[in-house]
TrEMBL record:
Organism field: Lentinus tigrinus ALCF2SS1-6
Name assigned to this protein: DUF1479-domain-containing protein
Coiled coil region boundaries: none
Matches recorded under InterPro entries: Gig2-like, IPNS-like_sf
Alphabetized Gene3D superfamilies for the sequence: B-lactam Antibiotic, Isopenicillin N Synthase, Chain
Highest taxon above the source species: Eukaryota
Length: 510
């Protein structure tokens, strides 16, 4: 019986770096380190990214019966739930067919000028439907190529010290604090783009303590991938935990309209940030913990040309509809007489009549405690991922890619091109109290050259030659993004934003 198959994929990793830095700023920050209102992140043990990837496809044991209880608790109206499921399946027929036909044309590409001007209504509709965007040409090509060279020089200057995965031929570098990374994170085109994309989110509850117009920096790793198979596969998955989507009451509230049943799922808004602030995306101890803060847009910035077949990102360009399906999926199973015995996932019946509401099974397909949510042709057959997960169109050095936190994504196994495929992982992260507390700890680690709090510990780049310092942050916006300058009060738009700006400045010691 193919119904419950689990293939986990890894959370994205990050870490931070070092600093030499302005003495005044360092002293100020040292003084501010006491009396903070948010608990500090506990340093992680010194594992490596290699160990993380080795753990990707581990399949967990069947979930205990309490997960069937959880389903019964969530399903308050069986008829309404069935109506929602049938409506979603019907909608998926056309949506998956559209992607199968159009391929990666579905991935919206816009010039940076469109971001500066603000996207058109039509562009916004597309983005909110697909959840993925490529912003082209904001960073000059030569500048992005310069970042790549600078990183290669940094690696060469520190022989024998650089870690990554796979160990024998590194693709994912455990570097977080190179000068190039700091330059990219604080580049005006990235800051402007992130401000804009974050501003597409909104609050639905009064006084939600968040500023979606204020980006913060989250130190993540980088990829320099040469031609050939990588030895590392990122199978289709969704970041932000797995079973927590249903098990954690706060996280579950994000999907309230979907779980209501009936046609309410059509009103589900993926850009409402209010219910996400308290979501617990990591209820279980994980060997490869994910991003511990609120990260509405995951993203990377290219340092090379990369096209389909060259080891690039693959996405399912479908946002609210795919989410509705993933959330409803655990409540349904194939009719017992149809289940099992399939040699190929493509043989699994997709017709709505073949599926029934099943509140007796404890299965949550693709959800394994301690893992990210996996999506396979078996666990989620109606998404037809063999045809609908598309490789990004060709990007140029300096292009930025962002995908909504709920978008299903993967990385190509093969790189059949001739050049390195290189990106810097740089997401868009808004100002919240927790995010500010993370940046406080990340800032402290950066000054000491240690990995950022979410990432494997150890001495990181503390003994590296040529790592970045505070002096490498060359703009006020950049200093604010990294927690080295207070956030401005002057432009807040509501009480929630005013409160979070005040709290963040206090947390950061200003
Ligand atoms: Fe991911």
């Amino acid at each position: 019986m193919l119904r419950v198959s689990r293939v986990a994929a890894p959370p994205l990793l990050a870490v931070s770096g070092v600093g030499s830095g302005a003495a005044r700023t360092y002293a100020q920050l040292t003084r501010s380190s006491s009396g903070e209102k948010h608990t500090r992140w506990v340093p992680k043990t010194e594992t490596t990214i290699a160990e993380v990837f080795e753990n990707l496809t581990a399949e967990g044991p069947p979930l205990p019966p309490r997960f069937a209880d959880l389903k019964r608790e969530m399903c308050v109206d069986k008829d309404a739930m069935l109506h929602a499921w049938r409506g979603v399946l019907k909608e998926l027929e056309g949506a998956t067919e559209e992607i199968a036909l159009r391929g990666n044309e579905m991935v919206m590409q816009v010039p940076y000028e469109d971001i500066q001007r603000g996207l058109s209504e039509e562009q916004l509709r597309t983005l909110k439907k697909t959840g993925v965007i490529i912003v082209k040409s904001g960073v000059p090509k030569e500048e992005a190529l310069g970042w790549l060279q600078s990183i290669k020089d940094y690696v060469a200057a520190n022989p024998g010290k650089v870690k990554g995965a796979p160990r024998d031929k590194i693709v994912f570098y455990e570097l977080y604090n190179s000068k190039a990374q700091i330059a990219a994170r604080t580049h005006p085109a990235l800051i402007t783009t992130q401000k804009y994309l974050l501003s597409l989110w909104h609050t639905s509850l009064p006084d939600t303590p968040v500023s979606v117009r204020t980006p913060l920096s989250y130190f993540d790793r980088l990829r320099i991938r040469g031609p050939g198979p990588s030895g590392v596969t990122l199978a289709p998955h969704i970041d932000g935990g797995g079973i927590e989507r249903w098990e954690d009451p706060a996280y579950r509230s994000v999907w309230k309209r979907i779980l209501e049943g009936g046609d309410a799922w059509r009103q589900y808004d993926p850009f409402d940030i209010s219910p996400r602030l308290d979501a617990n995306e990591e209820m279980y101890k994980s060997p490869n913990p994910g991003c511990s803060i609120l990260r509405p847009w995951q993203g990377w910035t290219a340092m090379s040309h990369t096209g389909p077949g060259e080891g690039t990102l693959r996405v399912l360009p479908m946002l609210p509809l795919a989410t509705a399906y993933v959330i409803l999926r655990p409540f349904f199973s194939l009719r017992p007489e149809l289940a099992g015995g399939f040699n190929d996932a493509a043989d699994i019946p997709l017709d709505a009549d073949a599926w029934v509401l099943d509140l007796d099974s404890s299965a949550f397909p693709g959800s394994t405690p301690g893992k990210t949510q996996a999506i396979t042709p078996v666990t989620h057959p109606h998404l037809r991922i063999d045809k609908t997960i598309v490789s990004l169109p060709r990007v140029e050095p300096g292009d930025q890619v962002y995908w909504h936190t709920d978008v299903i994504h993967a990385v190509e196994t093969e790189h059949n091109g001739t050049e390195d495929s290189s990106v810097l992982y740089i997401p868009a992260v808004p100002l919240t109290e927790r995010n500010a507390a993370y940046v406080r700890d990340q800032r402290d680690n950066f000054l000491r050259g240690l990995p950022s709090p979410d990432f494997p510990g150890g001495e990181g780049e503390s003994q590296f030659v040529g790592r970045a310092g505070v002096g490498d942050i060359t703009s006020a916006d950049g200093r604010s993004l990294l927690g080295f300058e207070p956030f401005e009060y002057s432009s807040y738009v509501n009480e929630g934003e005013r409160k979070v700006v005040a709290s963040a400045n206090e947390i950061l010691g200003f």
